[in-house]
């Protein structure tokens, strides 16, 4: 019959040795086993061992927080909102000054994820790639920054991450909107986005660390992803039959050469580099994944504030700066000249503040500079619900309301003017990270201060002991007379041989030996020479 060639024909006779066929191809049969078959959605397959999970306590972990990581996060979240420059070769690049222009960091983009040296993208191709950057890719970037702190030499060692770990970190294991293959394909593309960035650093002298430069390198160097597919039937030659299904992947990533200078414990100890780290919480990652679509401005601010509040925890932040981070400089500029755009921006700003407050960020306005009519009302029950229904009681209510101070009456209305918006732009806010991050940072600060105090105490005790030893030695040497036995003990304590002591004192070796054995008395002149020789050899 026509069309029967595409069906699976299985001989159902017991004891037969014939094999089933798919489209005319023999499918090998596995030997029957008395062991019960393993149940599950996919057949088992081996995965490479992965790096330890970031959040064993389900809350926080360390992450690299240097300036390169911060700016890389800004690029992934703000994309084309940043000021991209053009090199002579037509290569767009983003440059951020360091130490008031004494140094700088530059970023380029590349499509060569597995080629060295990578080629820099030019013109429209580069701009198209920048436009594709997804805010959620910043979550992958932060995860990489956290895994990098688990390694001793992250510029040489790789960390290994599976799709299972990434789904758990981001809360995607609870997402039922996408099927498994859609989720894996999308997640794999997101994981590659931070690896499209190239970085160059010209770093100025800061404190005890001298100036240095880092040649252009990958921000994150990713190996070819290891893809895991569901087992399928094979023909007699071992060729797969049918379409393979992706069921997982494993990534191997390491830091670029920048980590030798910015994530190097050995160089920090020798004051030749830095090792800067902050705190990443799993709750922050999941918050970003939940708000990025409806509230992209809040997502951009969260990632920016994660670094800013760690660098300057006690400094107020200017509203205009925060708005430019959240919405871009162009929208802020348009709002200054257009009342329509101003209303839109103010509305977005209030919603953004409300989202951050709901996600656990502490934000306090400065009453002297921040106009409170632009502060969001988190709890907004209608004030009209308190008006009595009885006409006489309602009249008394309104009469009493009229006696209240201006600005507190229900009938008062504060008009928002352009001057008020300008005041808003110059307003100041004090911002703190969510509680779990603040608590971990405070614990680190407390431990660091305790270690520094112990180190200073130990050094002071050591100096005191050395001073006492030196004083005792000088007092002993300044005695009116030395015996031969005392000379011998002092010589040994100083680590001197008889020959060396004789040379330092300008005496014959035999004379020193006879003095130590008591066979020759010590004259005043000899005493003086021995004192000088022993005192000068500390």
What's the pLDDT, averaged over the residues?
A: 84
Into which percent range does the helicity of residues fall? 40-55%
Distance, first to last CA:
106 Å
Shape, please? extended
Radius of gyration, taken over Cα atoms and rounded to an integer in Å: 37 Å
Q: Please work out how many helical segments DSSP would assign.
A: 19
In the sheet with the most strands, the strands line up as 4-5-6-8-9
Low-confidence stretches: 1-43
Give the structural class.
alpha+beta
Q: Using DSSP, what is the number of strands?
A: 16
Strand content: 5-15%
Describe the biggest sheet?
A: 5 strands, antiparallel
Keywords: DNA-binding
Domain HTH cro/C1-type: 487-535
Region (Disordered): 1-56
Protein name: Helix-turn-helix domain-containing protein
Task: Write up what this structure looks like.
There is one protein chain. With 538 residues, the protein is an alpha+beta fold. 43% of the residues lie in helices and 14% in strands. The strands form 5 sheets. A 5-stranded antiparallel beta sheet has the order 4-5-6-8-9, covered by helices on one side. Strands 7, 10, 11 and 12 form a 4-stranded antiparallel beta sheet that branches. A 3-stranded antiparallel beta sheet has the order 14-16-15. β1 and β2 form a beta hairpin. It is extended. It comes from Floridaenema evergladense BLCC-F167.
């Amino acid at each position: 019959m026509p069309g029967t060639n595409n069906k699976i024909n299985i001989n159902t006779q017991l004891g037969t040795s014939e094999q089933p066929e798919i489209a005319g191809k023999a499918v090998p049969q596995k030997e029957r086993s008395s062991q019960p078959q393993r149940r599950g959605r996919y057949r088992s397959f081996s995965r490479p061992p992965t790096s330890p999970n970031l959040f064993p306590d389900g809350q926080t972990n360390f992450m690299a927080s240097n300036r390169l990581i911060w700016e890389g996060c800004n690029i992934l979240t703000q994309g084309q909102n940043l000021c991209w420059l053009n090199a002579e070769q037509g290569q767009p690049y983003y440059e951020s000054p360091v130490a008031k222009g004494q140094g700088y960091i530059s970023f380029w983009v590349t499509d060569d994820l597995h080629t060295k040296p990578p080629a820099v993208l030019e013109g429209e191709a580069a701009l198209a790639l920048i436009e594709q950057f997804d805010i959620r890719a910043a979550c992958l970037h932060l995860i990489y920054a956290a895994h990098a702190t688990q390694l001793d030499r992250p510029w040489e060692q790789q960390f290994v991450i599976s799709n299972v770990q990434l789904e758990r970190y981001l809360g995607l294991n609870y997402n039922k909107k996408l099927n498994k293959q859609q989720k894996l394909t999308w997640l794999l593309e997101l994981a590659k986005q931070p690896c499209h960035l190239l970085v160059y650093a010209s770093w100025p002298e800061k404190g005890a660390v001298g100036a240095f430069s880092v040649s252009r390198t990958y921000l994150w160097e990713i190996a070819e992803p290891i893809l895991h597919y569901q087992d399928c039937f094979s023909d007699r030659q071992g060729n797969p039959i049918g379409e393979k299904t992706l069921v997982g992947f494993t990534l191997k990533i390491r830091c670029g050469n920048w980590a030798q200078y910015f994530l190097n414990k050995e160089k920090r100890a020798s004051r030749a580099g830095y090792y800067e780290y902050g705190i990443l919480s799993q709750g922050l990652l999941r918050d970003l994944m939940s708000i990025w679509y409806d509230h992209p401005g809040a997502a951009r601010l969260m990632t920016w504030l994660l670094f800013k509040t760690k660098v300057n925890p006690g400094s107020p932040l200017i509203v205009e700066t925060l708005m430019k981070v959240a919405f871009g400089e162009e929208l802020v500029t348009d709002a200054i000249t257009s009342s329509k755009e101003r209303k839109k921006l103010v509305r977005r700003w209030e919603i953004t503040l409300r989202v951050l407050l709901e996600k656990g960020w502490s934000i306090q306005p400065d009453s002297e500079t921040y106009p409170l009519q632009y502060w969001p009302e988190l709890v907004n029950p209608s004030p009209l619900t308190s008006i009595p229904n009885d006409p006489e009681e309602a009249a008394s209510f309104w009469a009493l309301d009229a006696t209240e101070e201006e600005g507190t009456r229900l009938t008062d209305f504060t008009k928002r003017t352009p001057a008020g918006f300008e005041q808003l732009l110059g307003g100041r806010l004090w911002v703190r990270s969510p509680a779990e991050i603040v608590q971990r940072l405070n614990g680190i600060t407390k431990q660091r201060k305790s270690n520094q105090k112990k180190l200073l105490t130990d050094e002071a005790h050591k100096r005191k002991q050395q001073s006492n030893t030196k004083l005792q030695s000088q007092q002993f040497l300044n005695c009116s007379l030395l015996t031969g036995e005392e000379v011998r003990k002092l010589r040994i304590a100083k680590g001197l041989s008889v020959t060396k002591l004789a040379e330092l004192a300008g005496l014959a070796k035999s004379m020193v030996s006879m003095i130590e054995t008591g066979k020759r008395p010590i004259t005043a002149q000899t005493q003086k020479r021995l004192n000088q020789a022993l005192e000068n050899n500390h």
